[in-house]
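Exam revision sheet. Question 4 asks you to relate a sequence to its structure. Input first:
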Amino acid sequence: MAFEIVRNMAVDQDIVFDHGEGDHALGQHVSGNLALDVLPQQLLRHPALRRLGETLEPVPAGQPAWSRAELAGRLCELGAGQDGALLSAGLGLVLDAQREGETAAWVTSTRATFFPPDAAACGVDLAALVVVQTKDVGAAGRAADVLLRSGAFGLVVLDLGTGAAMPTPLQGRLVQLALKHDAAVVCLTQKRPDEASLGSLVSLRGQSARRRSRDGRRFVCGIDTLKDKRRGPGWAWQEVRLGPDGLC
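Answer key, structure tokens:
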């Protein structure tokens, strides 16, 4: 039985190959990009691994929109400052999913979440919305993992609040489950555009903001994309909403 040691320059460590029965699975030789060629082909199909220059995600047809269909199969993050409209943007996705006939879930690790009467006034069917309250961000991510594994949800919104940080392995599981079940996983975070996102596995990152309309009775809620692996950053989405009682 022969062994071969190959230096992986990407991680600065030696990789040992056993040229025995597993020789065909790993390949007869090493060439090109050592960091990728020395890995089994099964690992190359992981959504987090790509060759340099490879298109990350196919560009869909049509114009971009803040919708469940646009975000399906992806891990997304929407941030906002004090003038944001996170809950409105999240509930808009819930309403869109319900109109498509998809079941939606809302997982929150914050003490305060959306106001049910306002959600109902927007058209959300509260009886069909699963709401999960967790103690922290990690528990919220694990709850989303369980929900997605059931295959019953087309949308899972995670309301994570400020200081949100999710382990990369957990994000990887959410990405795989989103792809497998064509589900949208959307994390709502209280962050400025210059703050770091949840991680590199986030497929789309947007920033939400709102401003009062000219008539003073309504609000323009807008989303600017800071990152989009499918279409590229820079596209924007906005809609006009009525404010809750006492705010208009």
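Marking note for examiners. Helices lie at 23-26, 34-37, 41-44, 68-71, 86-99, 116-121, 137-149, 168-181.
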